[in-house]
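Long-time lurker. I teach an intro course on protein structure, and each term I like to show students one example going from raw sequence to a predicted 3D structure in token notation. This year I'd like something fresh instead of my usual example. Would anyone be willing to generate the tokens for the chain below so I can use it in lecture? Attribution to the forum is fine with me.
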Amino acid sequence: MKTKHTARSAFFNLRILITLFLCAVAACSLVSRPLLAFFRSEVPTTGSQRTLTFAERVAYQRAIEEVYWRHRIWPKENPKPKPSLDEVMSAQQIEKKVEDYLRDAQALEDYWQRPIALDQLQAEMNRIASHTKQPGVLRELFEALGNDPFIIAECLARPILSERLKLAKVEWRKGPLDSWRAGAENQMQKLTAAARTSYTLPQVSGLPYNLSPSDACTDNTWTPTSLTNAPDARYLHTAVWTGNEMIVWGGSNGNGLNTGGRYNPSTDTWAATNIIGSPDSRENHAAAWTGSEMIAWGGYSYNSGGQYLNTGGTYDPATDSWTGTSTTN
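-- Reply from a regular --
Happy to contribute to a lecture. Here you go:
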């Protein structure tokens, strides 16, 4: 009896062990499937696509403005110390710059029925790198954007190219800022979705890091500037140097002018100055750079029946805006 009982116990124990083993295998299978699926879903695919949020674009725009402000001339005649970027340019003004170039890109897409292509942005980066007249400053801009060709294409080349392509007549759309910003951000995500690693960082021509400007320049030689978006031909105008831009304004082409342009030698590009709020057309006027604004004053106007002027205005290149000067005293 004892032998039978022992054999029967062993038999039942074996059945229990087999049952437990099969249950364990099934349980492991049930648990492992979702775990494997979970871990697989966490692994990024090689085809992942990069996008930029509006906040990221604003942060990169601020980095660009910081480089430009660092090179702005602060005249020794100005007794005040040079302020920080935050003191001369608000966060809202930087946001507006991003909003403006996003709006430009959207308007161009609406007009041409296609977005700015990746090869166009790559070509613009190549143009900037090969045509720069300030290679040292351009390298600083690239470094401020992490030497990341995707960021450089989106936050430096795209705004410049959008401005250059606005030579076509485009009808700008207006709408509530908040709703427009949401739509523009979604639109720009669509535009940049296919970027991946398609861009390559171009080599900046000109001044190597180990040479001073005098070593890299050839005396008594000229290099042409871009004519795209350049102001109309004129004479008796003024031009001031800010440290990173030349601002040309006023003058005459047979008629008095109140237009102008800003030339950026680091990117070899022109941008028109705003005419809203600008002084009346004039020539033979005076202009001076204060460190943050250009003051244009006086001159002669044929457009007003031929008279000398005692009016003027201050132009802020950071906001592309004019403020009239007082005529009191």
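Some talking points for your students: The longest strand covers residues 260-264. The chain has nine helices and ten strands.
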